[in-house]
Amino acid sequence: MSNYYADKLNSQSLFQVYETDIPRVKQYLDAEIDFVRKNLSGSERVLEMAAGYGRIVKELASYCGSIVGMDISAENVELGKEYLKDFPNASMVTMDAHKMTFDDTFDVILCLQNGLSAVRANPAVIDNIINLLAPGGAVYFSSYSARFWDWRVKWFEEQAAKGLLGEIDYDQTKNGVIICKDGFKAMTHSPEDFKKIGDAIGLPYQIKEVDESSIFLIIQKK
Ligand SMILES: C[S@@+](CC[C@H](N)C(=O)[O-])C[C@H]1O[C@@H](n2cnc3c(N)ncnc32)[C@H](O)[C@@H]1O
């Protein structure tokens, strides 16, 4: 199956996605990272799934023991290695979330910035994440709050204007789904979707809204 991010929206293009001129979008991106940062004690082994070029990895590296960013795009991982060169406890690895294997477990696994949608996660991917968590560890999934919809659309319009994405298909873009005329599609995990995931896993979980822009699902492993 083709992967829009890996094939078209990687490396410098992905970098430009996050170079937004929209203050409310910057606030959302900062608030999402800040929420995770406040929950780190400084010693955790962290994995960020679908980490792109390591934007979030860089922001968290000084607040944990070690952090690995994994991404399906080798171009992103190459850019990430350069981007993270001053952070000795941070590394990047090329891997598909659907075939994720590591020798060790992690205390914290992150799948942020609507990552479950980007990797097209299925229940097997989520079960594997739980297996890779150490006892006492936690996984953080985040998606968009419905209250952020108008800003999210503005951000995608900005990306389309920069030529990073195709023109937005406004007939089909609604109810948390963004569709562009070149085949790009991004979904949302609503609080109800996150509740279904939490219930299916059967471990203690919380669903939290942050900054009226993100929705987090945090699952704790006993
Ligand atoms: C919207 S970007 C987010 C990047 C990063 N999390 C951030 O917030 O800066 C989505 C990322 O998911 C990655 N991705 C898509 N499918 C993947 C998969 N199956 N396994 C691992 N990464 C994947 C893409 O290459 C892309 O870097």
Automatic annotation (TrEMBL):
InterPro entries: Methyltransf_25 (IPR041698), SAM-dependent_MTases_sf (IPR029063). It comes from the Bacteria. The keyword Methyltransferase applies. The keyword Methyltransferase applies. GO terms for molecular function: methyltransferase activity. One of its GO terms (biological process) is methylation. Residues 46-137 form the Methyltransferase domain. SUPFAM superfamilies: S-adenosyl-L-methionine-dependent methyltransferases (SSF53335). Gene3D superfamilies: Vaccinia Virus protein VP39. Keywords: Methyltransferase, Transferase. PANTHER family: TRANS-ACONITATE 2-METHYLTRANSFERASE (PTHR43861:SF1), TRANS-ACONITATE 2-METHYLTRANSFERASE-RELATED (PTHR43861). This is Class I SAM-dependent methyltransferase. It comes from Lutispora saccharofermentans.
